[in-house]
Amino acid sequence: MDIPIPYLEYFGLTEKPFGLTPDPHFYFETETHREALAHLRFLLGQKEGFALIYGDVGLGKTTLSRIFLSSLDRDMYNTALILNPIMDEREFLVAILKELGLEAKGATKRELFDGLQRFLLEEHRNGRETVLAIDEAQLLSNELLELIRILSNIETEKEKMLRIVLLGQPELVQKLKEPQVRYLSQRITVTYRLKPFSEREIGLYINYRLVKAGSKGFPDFKKNAVRRIFRASRGCPRLVNILSDRCMLALYSRSKESVDKQIVDDVLAEENTPFASIDGDAPSTRGYRVVVLSLIGLVLILFAAFFANLIGYW
């Protein structure tokens, strides 16, 4: 049984606007997303190589992968999405085959590989290409990276039969620079780093998600609130969702209609906020500044007393 969200009825919403689960229904395309999708479409035209899309936690890589795969013509492309690559080689092959709608019971690793190869070859003959997207790719083991390299070798005389997209955090880039996997990094022909949202994009993002959740203009996020959310989240949409959701709850508890800077500051001042460590001007840092200023004052007093004694001595 789902636990009701108290503010939904108050704001006249049909669903939670700022959830943390990647949901294509709430996908808001920014400039960085458009650029990333353009790079992925370029990969399809390349007929070879890998694509690498990377960025910090919470920038929307998972949603982007789903949007990209769902945008492909089903008459021309087969698609497979691996969300968690923490597995061995056999489990990895089974996961790919299941994503492609194929049986994968009781077979050895070699049999699974041969089955996938036959499928790719047959689909290629029928004019259909296959795209494999691997999310959280920084978690791939060296053994799986080697298997991916082998999968990329399935090809005709002119082109690859499997397009591979790696999506991961920045440490994936460092991992691909290691000597034992350099053979794979040499095959990456498309690379793009996702960027944080701008302040303007965050304002549009918040309003967009509210409308998608059924808002008729209520609640309203004031410009100074958006600016505060931008600074606290540093443009990370996942953190924007967390902060906006808490602001909605605070607004509901106070029976108000607009989120302003004060409400955002009050939320940031909560002890369990995840934003204090990333926003140097957050209210939670005021105590730290008071301590620093107090120490400076104490030092000045000690210096004054020292010089006073020194003058008295002379």
How would you describe this protein?
With 314 residues, the protein is α/β, with parallel strands linked by helices. The protein has three domains: 163 residues, Rossmann fold (3-Layer(aba) Sandwich), CATH 3.40.50.300; 83 residues, Helicase, Ruva Protein, domain 3 (Orthogonal Bundle), CATH 1.10.8.60; 32 residues. Helix content is 50%, strand content 11%. It has 13 helices and seven strands. The strands form two sheets. The chain has a five-stranded parallel β-sheet with strand order 2-3-4-1-5, with helices on both faces. Helix 4 packs parallel to helix 5, helix 10 packs across helix 11 and helix 11 packs across helix 12. The N and C termini lie far apart (83 Å).
How are the SSEs ordered, and which strands pair?
Blueprint: H1 6-11, H2 31-46, E1 50-54, H3 61-70, E2 77-82, H4 89-99, H5 109-125, E3 129-134, H6 142-152, E4 162-168, H7 171-175, H8 182-185, E5 188-193, H9 199-212, E6 220-221, H10 223-233, H11 237-253, E7 258-259, H12 261-268, H13 286-313
Helix pairs in contact: 4-5, 10-11, 10-12, 11-12
Structural class: alpha/beta
CATH class term of the largest domain: Alpha Beta
Unreliable runs: 276-293
Helix share bin: 40-55%
Question: Beta fraction of the residues?
Answer: 5-15%
**CATH architecture title of the largest domain:** 3-Layer(aba) Sandwich
CATH superfamily of the largest domain: P-loop containing nucleotide triphosphate hydrolases
- Over all CA atoms, what is the radius of gyration? 26 Å
Give a short summary of the structure.
This protein has 314 residues and is an alpha/beta fold. 50% of the residues lie in helices and 11% in strands. It contains 13 helices and seven strands.
